[in-house]
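Hi everyone, sorry if this is the wrong subforum. Our group has a chain we'd like a structural model of before ordering constructs, and none of us has done structure prediction before. Sequence below.
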Amino acid sequence: MESGSMDVAVGENNKIAGIRWKDNSIVTLLSNVHGLDPLQKCLRYSAKEKKKIEIPQPFIVKLDSSTIIFQITE
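Answer:
Right subforum, don't worry. Here is the predicted structure as tokens:
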């Protein structure tokens, strides 16, 4: 999984979204309020390119942690 790539799953009742986003490691978030859109851009250092590059970032990652229901780190 490359930096900036993501997977999204939405519950059958469309009331909860699960998002996995690759930053330096995989970030997994669940929310019943916010989802993937609108996508943001963030800068991350690319060892491969030896410079900072822009990668897509889900909207929920930018939010204050008080709005996040559950966070799993791996």
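For your construct planning: The chain has one domain: 6-73. The chain is about 5% helix and 45% strand.
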